[in-house]
Amino acid sequence: MAVIDLLVLVALTVFSSSLQARGNSEGDALSALRRSLTDPDTVLQSWDPNLVNPCTWFHVTCNAENRVTRVDLGNSNLSGHLVPELGKLEHLQYLELYKNNIQGSIPAELGNLKRLISLDLYSNNFSGTIPPSLGKLKSLVFLRLNDNKLNGPIPRALSSVSTLKVVDVSNNNLCGTIPITGSFEHIPLSNFENNPRLEGPELQGLASYDTNCA
Question: For 144-167, what is each residue's pLDDT tens digit?
Answer without folding.
Answer: 999 999 999 999 999 999 999 999
